[in-house]
Amino acid sequence: MEGIMMRNKGKYAIAVRKPDGEIDVKVDDYKSVIPVPALQKIPILRGVVSFVDSLVVGIRCLMYSASFFEEEEENDKKDKKDKKEKKKSSEKEEGSDTLFVAGTMTLALVMAVVLFMIVPLFVSRRLGANLPPLGRSALESGIRVAVFLGYMVAISRMKDIQRTFEYHGAEHKCINCIENGRELTVDNVLISSRLHKRCGTSFLFFVILVSVIFQMFVHSDNRLTQLGIRLLLIPVIAGVSFEIIRLAGISDNPVVNLMSKPGLALQKLTTREPDAKEAEVAIQAVEAVFDWRAFIAEKNSPPGSGQSE
Question: What CA–CA distance (Å, rounded) separates 149 from 198?
C-alpha cells in the first residue's frame, strides 16, 4: 500500500500518497485492544499485548490506505448505484470495520498456524516416522525454517508487495536517520540504512527460533496433543520473542548484535530501497507524532549541558 504508519507513545500516524499525488496524514490515539495497563509492564505478557495490538493497528492502517484507491476506482467507474449501496451511517461503518479487523486478524493467525505449525508437524511425523523424538523435532524445525524462508522469498517477488517493501525501507531509513543524529530530510533519509534491529521481520525470525527451541522439549506420541501444546505455547513464544527484540533495540552487546544478524539479513528480503517520494511520505508520518528536532538537539548536546549550575 502507498503509505507508512509511525507510532510514538500514545499516538500513531498514517501517511498515504493518494492517487492525485498529495499526501494525506491521519493522527489517532493509540489504544490497546487489551485495556489493562498493568500487563504492559510485565515481561512476556507485555509482548503478547504488543503483538495483538500491532496486528490490529496494522490491519486498520492497511484498510485506511486502501480506501483511497477504492474511492479512485469508484470514481473511474462512475457507478452511482454502487456508491448509494455503500453509503452507511458512521456507527454502522465503525461496527463493520471492527468485524472486518477481527475477521482478518483471525484469518491471518489461522493461516500462520497452519503454514508454520501444522504443516511442519504433520510432514515431519510422516517423513520421520522411524526417527527418535529428538530426531523428529529436529526434522520439524528444519521444515519450519524452510517453509518460513520459502514464504519470505515468494512474497518478496510479488510486484505489489515489493512496493510495500519500499515503504518499509523508507520507514527504517527515517528511524535510522534520526537515531544517527541527522536532520530528517529526503537526502539524509535516502543515504541511511534500510535495516533496523527492532523490525517486525526480526521479530518473526525470533518467533521461529524460539519456537524451535521450545519444541525440542515438547514430545508426545499423539499428534493432536503435540499440536495442542504448540498452540498453547504461541503466546509464550510471542512474549519471549518480544523481550529479545526489545533487548536488541536498546543494547549494543556483541552477543546481542550477533543474535540480531540473521533478522537483519532477512530484512534484505522485506525491505527495498525507496525513492524520494516514498521518503517524503515516511517523513510526514514521523513528523506527525515525533519531534525529531528536539530529539537530535538532545542527542547532540554535550553531556551535562542541560543541567543548571
Answer: 19
